[in-house]
From TrEMBL:
InterPro entries: Cell_Envelope_Struct_Comp, Cyt_c-like_dom, Cyt_c-like_dom_sf, SLH_dom. Gene3D superfamilies: Cytochrome c-like domain. It comes from the Bacteria. Residues 42-120 form the Cytochrome c domain. The keyword Repeat does not apply. One of its GO terms (molecular function) is electron transfer activity. This is C-type cytochrome. The lineage of its organism: Bacteria, Bacillati, Bacillota, Bacilli, Bacillales.
């Protein structure tokens, strides 16, 4: 009977596949067993240990849980919820483990998120700040996710000596202040990004931090100036000057004169040894991190 023969060959195929699968599973079990007995057991609070203990119940070793759950390693994962740290952390800390949300500590969610991104080859540590003068401030803010980096060629870069843009400064500032993000989506400003930084800029507008330029632009990609930063700090901290600004290059009547005097007198943001403030000068991402750090960690 030709029909039966067909079934028989399917059966053989299936048995073969089953043997293969079992073999592979056995092999990987054996492999991880030997790795562990060789003394490479991950520390209990490492991302790897948390992953093994809390995630592999559903997501199997290569990330695919019995075909039921999304694969956590691979192209789809990299392009989806594991595309970057913020996305992955938000999803994992809110939705995973699915049967028991919020069951891990924040540090554990952070560690497992980093580990999982690492499995996908996505860098999670800044690689260009270790020896920088502002590394302490940058890394502290980075750990709190106040500041972020650029992913380039498999590396995460802070680019500390690059000028910071107006949009970046506002994003970091609003995050540092932990303000509730506005629900407002409309604005008179004509050049805001449609997504991403838009909500941070609108939140800053709502909190009276910024207004934009008289021509109704915000110029998000322009580098922010020292005078603009002084104005933002003075507004956000409600600083009033106790006297005129004592800088040779800040004339009375300059639009940010009071703000500059106020931030200097409160020692939040000062001038240079030569008695100048250099209001039109742009500031680097490292300098911005130092200012935001000082603001949120008063000594
Ligand atoms: C109880 C089973 C279960 C556990 C435990 C579990 N997951 Fe999941 N995971 C799921 C299911 C189901 C989905 C799909 C849910 C969805 O898409 O909303 C999922 C989806 C995900 C996704 C999104 C994948 C994608 O491509 O969309 C990530 C990332 C993830 N899990 C990470 C983790 C991590 C990390 C842990 C351990 C801390 C974990 N999961 C523990 C069941 C589980």
């Amino acid at each position: 009977m030709p029909q039966l023969r067909l079934k028989k060959s399917w059966l053989i195929l299936l048995t073969g596949a089953a043997v293969l699968v079992t073999g592979t599973l056995l092999q990987s079990t054996l492999r991880s067993d030997t790795a562990h007995s060789a003394g490479t057991e991950p520390a209990a609070d490492s991302g790897e240990a948390i992953y093994e203990q809390h995630c592999l119940v559903c997501h199997a070793a290569e990330g695919q849980g019995a075909g039921k759950y999304p694969a956590l390693v691979g192209e789809a994962a990299r392009k989806g919820r594991l595309a970057n740290y913020d996305k992955a952390y938000a999803f994992i800390s809110r939705n995973m483990p699915q049967n028991n949300p919020g069951s891990l500590k924040d540090d554990e969610y952070k560690a497992v998120t980093k580990y999982l991104l690492g499995l996908n080859g996505i860098p999670t540590d800044l690689s260009d700040v270790a020896n920088h003068w502002a590394s302490k401030e940058i890394l502290a803010l980075f750990d709190k996710r106040v500041v972020d980096g650029y992913t380039e060629n498999g590396k995460l870069l802070f680019k500390p000596d690059q000028f910071i843009t107006r949009a970046e400064f506002i994003r970091y500032f609003v995050k540092a202040k932990e303000w509730y993000l506005t629900n407002e989506t409309q604005s008179d400003l004509t050049d805001l990004p449609k997504a991403g930084d838009r909500v941070y800029i609108l939140t800053a507008v709502e909190n009276g931090l910024i207004e934009g330029y008289p021509d109704h632009t915000f110029r998000p990609k322009a580098a922010i100036t020292r005078a603009e930063i002084a104005a933002i700090l003075a507004r956000s901290e409600l600083l009033k000057p106790t006297g005129p600004a004592a800088f040779k290059d800040v004339s009375s009547g300059f639009w940010a004169e009071e703000a500059i005097a106020a931030v200097q007198q409160s020692q939040l943001f000062g001038g240079y040894e030569d008695g100048s403030f250099r209001p039109a000068q742009q500031i680097t991402r490292a300098e911005a991190a130092a200012v935001i750090y000082r603001l949120t960690n008063p000594s």
